[in-house]
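Handout, page 2. Input:
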Amino acid sequence: MLAAGIDRTVDDTMPCVGEIEDFEDFREQMWLFVHEGAFLFELPLGVLDHLPEGIVQHGPWPAEECSRCLLTWFDHGWIELDALPEHLSCWSSDDDLMRDSSDENIRIVENDRARAILGAPQMWTNDRPEGLVCLVPADHAPSSDFRQLWLDAISPPG
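Output:
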């Protein structure tokens, strides 16, 4: 979780193009996005950390690299995609959604559909249901105590 005094906001002013300048920061921020339950559309935009000593910008990142990172974790069985109650009406069919046993209001995106969404970052917009799903650690994912295991699973681009 975030340390006290840190406020994170999505930076929607920056384009999501170019290369990753700081790969270690990219991996760390992707890990935080998963553990904070971020929406997919937020990832390529980057984030601003509002610290007592000033604002720190992370990203933006190429959507394809965000996708590659998330697919790695998904293929390990470490993440899933959740549809929140307020976005269920955006889905044309419930066929791709399964009831979450821990919260009857949340729906988990079925695995094949989730993998297709993660592999198609062009769909990660805030006006599509695919962009409005939340990243969450899967029940059997390594705990946040094993953060380095998550980070080491992601290799540098290229």
